[in-house]
Amino acid sequence: MNIVYRKQIPYPQPVVLSAYFDLEHIAHVHPSTFGRTRVLKTHGRTVVWELESPAYLGVRFRNVIAQEYMPPYEIRARVTKGLLRGTEVFVRVEPSDGGTCIEETYMLPLPDLPLLGRLVRAWFAKKTDQIWEEDLEVGLPRGGWPGVPES
Ligand SMILES: [Fe+2]
Known about the structure:
The protein is α+β, with helices and mostly antiparallel strands.
């Protein structure tokens, strides 16, 4: 099942791109929407990190994500371990109208059933909007850690 999310962000492209590689800010800005992160290793243009989800009915889920920067505008992430294993995310972060246009495509290992699709898409849109609102409320971080690899 594929889900596409697009949004215009009122920040320059390098700032938006670096937010995707600022894994430290997630725990401070998105603890209840995104969860907690831990960088496991970086090699070349890839950062491997662990995401611990917020608690759902008291349970937290851990996933390991390999996230690769493909200059100049793309990021590809694959979930290699955990409940969401097999999920792939492809992100385009492009300059547009003095800000940045982002397009995130989530490829989920779920069957393409219409009702399931509607539920998952609605949940995703709400969560993703919420996460961007949290970012824009505090202002996008600059720099960040570990940062965009090889830049
Ligand atoms: Fe963020």
